[in-house]
């Protein structure tokens, strides 16, 4: 870190501290000319909003993490998706000129300088190409890359502090911040977004109910993105607000536009599961402003800056999802331990080098017995987590309970508890699994906002109707899409060499931690179960 970078870091750090301090003790402030009376949720939202930069983006992501924050906090943070102040047009015009060599007014046949959308990274304008095609033009905010890089340094420092003092130690803050930085860096390069949109469009070509806008890659750059302008779209963000303000909004939408919100909420879940498992390449930022509905029950996606990529390890996750749909906690537990077995195998291989063949076989049998015991115990824990959720879904489905009960028993909370329980059993969860749980939690939260009666299990069942387990496994095994992705999108494109090494070290550290816990478990179960102790002594 250079001296200038360090000074920028200090300035930004103390700026954030000052914002947090001011919001923490004041009962009300004047913000954008309005008096705002502060409570916990408003303080958090204003911290991200006033801080801007990467912290605004972080707040938008947290708005969808009902597994991490109470509902009243996430509801308040949702305002960050639409309450982003616009940058003066003259500054945006300058960015466009730097990228394409002339101002927008000369480049396009028509260009409206009033933004139709304003986000943390850029602003969107309506324009007409010389060919007459209507397009949306996203221009990156000036200086945003430098500001984000500075914020990344502060975020890393914050992760170090949280780790040092053991604050919310169940969360791996270095991993959270590392993934946030990696994804955000990719989002800052609009050429990656255009390529990602093209891949998802190709994957969705056989699904007429899914709409992906056309991207004009030949006239897009790192800081300017040109795409098809979608008219008459109903953003999910607008739909959510409409439902809150007008009790007949859903009814009117169905009558006037042939859009059934209950059907679309379920389709949204099915389509995201399809992207994850069948394609292995999915929209990883499906918040309400990035999803839209079109006449005739069609679903569309915007903003492909944050994309998730998964490999063949998702196969076990698919079996786990199938078992969840079948309410088979025993098969779920076995699927979880298929992840743990990776760490078991590592242990056995190390023992093979250090011990004789007899010792290796002894440890292997002991680990198999421990796994058998742990599966039985995990089944009980999964029942405790899943049964209330299953019950809530059943009661809402049969109209025995109000749909609001699903805000308490939602998938985000269920999956969060499952992840925490897996850690208790020293189960090594690959990155793909954690990524799936986070994404499906966000999807469930958005789907419930679209239609409060959304039944996650029903949607999962519909996915397996379209893609039976055997068919889905064949498609994953073929890996036809993975080859295309590898050729066109480099997942480590925006990481420095040091950060690539750091990423690999973190993965190894996670595995080592799981192995250490397994060693402790070996001793733990040997003390409490005679059959394990007998195997080890033999």
Portion of residues within helices: 55-70%
Q: How many helical elements?
A: 23
Beta-sheet strand percentage? 5-15%
Spatial gap, N to C terminus = 57 Å
Protein structure class: alpha+beta
The coarse overall form would be globular
The major β-sheet equals:
5 strands, antiparallel
- Overall pLDDT level: 82
Regions with pLDDT < 50 over 5+ consecutive residues?
484-493
- The radius of gyration is 25 Å
- How many β-strand stretches? 13
Structure description:
The radius of gyration is 25 Å and the shape is globular. The protein has helices at residues 3-25, 40-51, 53-62, 71-77, 89-100, 104-107, 144-164, 173-187, 190-203, 236-245, 249-257, 261-279, 314-325, 329-354, 357-397, 405-408, 411-424, 431-450, 456-466, 469-478, 480-488, 497-528, 530-537; strands at 28-31, 34-37, 110-111, 117-118, 122-128, 134-140, 210-211, 224-228, 234-235, 281-283, 291-294, 298-301, 307-309. It starts with a helix and ends with a helix. Strands 3, 4, 5, 6 and 8 form a 5-stranded antiparallel β-sheet that branches. Strand 4 and strand 5 form a beta hairpin. It contains 23 helices and 13 strands. The model is unreliable at 484-493 (pLDDT under 50). Among the domains are: 3-85 and 145-182, no CATH class; 327-429 and 495-537, no CATH class. By secondary structure, it is an alpha+beta fold. 64% of the residues lie in helices and 9% in strands.
């Amino acid at each position: 870190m250079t001296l200038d970078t360090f000074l920028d870091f200090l300035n930004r750090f103390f700026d954030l501290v000052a914002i947090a301090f001011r919001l923490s003790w004041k009962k009300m402030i004047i913000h954008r000319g309005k008096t705002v009376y502060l409570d916990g949720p408003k303080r958090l939202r204003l911290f991200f909003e006033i801080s801007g930069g990467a912290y605004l983006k972080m707040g938008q992501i947290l708005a969808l993490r009902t597994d991490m924050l109470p509902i009243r906090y996430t509801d308040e943070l949702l305002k960050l998706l639409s309450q982003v102040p616009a940058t003066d047009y003259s500054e945006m015009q300058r960015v466009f000129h730097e990228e394409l060599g002339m101002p927008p007014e000369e480049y396009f046949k028509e260009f409206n300088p009033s933004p139709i959308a304003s986000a943390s990274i850029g602003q969107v304008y309506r324009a007409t190409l010389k060919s007459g095609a209507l397009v949306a033009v996203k221009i990156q905010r000036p200086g945003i890359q430098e500001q984000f890089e500075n914020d990344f340094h502060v975020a890393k420092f914050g992760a170090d502090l949280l780790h040092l003092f053991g604050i919310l130690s169940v969360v791996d803050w270095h991993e959270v911040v590392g993934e946030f930085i990696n994804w955000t860096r990719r989002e800052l390069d609009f050429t990656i977004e255009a390529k990602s949109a093209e891949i998802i469009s190709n994957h969705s070509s056989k699904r007429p109910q899914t709409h992906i806008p056309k991207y004009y890659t030949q006239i897009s750059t790192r800081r300017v993105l040109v795409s098809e302008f979608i008219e008459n779209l109903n953003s999910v963000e607008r739909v959510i607000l409409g439902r809150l303000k007008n009790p007949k909004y859903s009814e009117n939408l169905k009558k006037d536009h042939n859009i059934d919100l209950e059907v679309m909420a379920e389709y949204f879940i099915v389509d995201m599961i399809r992207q994850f498992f069948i394609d292995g390449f999915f929209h990883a930022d499906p918040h309400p402003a990035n999803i839209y509905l079109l006449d005739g029950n069609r679903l569309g996606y915007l903003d492909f800056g944050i994309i998730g990529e998964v490999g063949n390890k998702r196969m076990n996750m698919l079996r786990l999802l199938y078992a969840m749909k079948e309410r088979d906690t025993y098969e779920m537990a076995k699927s979880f331990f298929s992840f743990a077995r990776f760490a078991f195998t590592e242990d056995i291989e190390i023992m093979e080098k250090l011990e004789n063949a007899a010792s290796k076989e002894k440890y292997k049998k002991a680990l198999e017995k421990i796994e058998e015991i742990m599966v039985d115990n995990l089944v009980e824990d999964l029942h405790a987590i899943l049964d209330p959720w299953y019950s809530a879904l059943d009661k809402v489905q049969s109209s025995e309970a109000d749909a609001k009960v699903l805000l308490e028993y939602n998938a985000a909370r269920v999956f969060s508890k499952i992840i925490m329980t897996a850690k208790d059993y020293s189960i090594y969860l690959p990155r793909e699994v954690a990524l799936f749980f986070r994404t499906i939690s966000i999807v469930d939260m958005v789907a419930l906002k679209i239609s409060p009666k959304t039944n996650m299990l029903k949607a999962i069942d519909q996915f397996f109707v379209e893609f039976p387990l055997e068919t889905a496994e064949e498609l994953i095994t073929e890996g036809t899409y993975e080859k295309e992705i590898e050729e066109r999108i480099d997942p480590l494109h925006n990481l420095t060499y040091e950060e690539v090494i750091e990423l690999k070290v973190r993965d190894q550290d996670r595995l080592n931690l799981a192995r250490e816990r397994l060693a402790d478990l070996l001793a733990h179960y040997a003390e409490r179960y005679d059959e394990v102790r007998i195997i080890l002594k033999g």
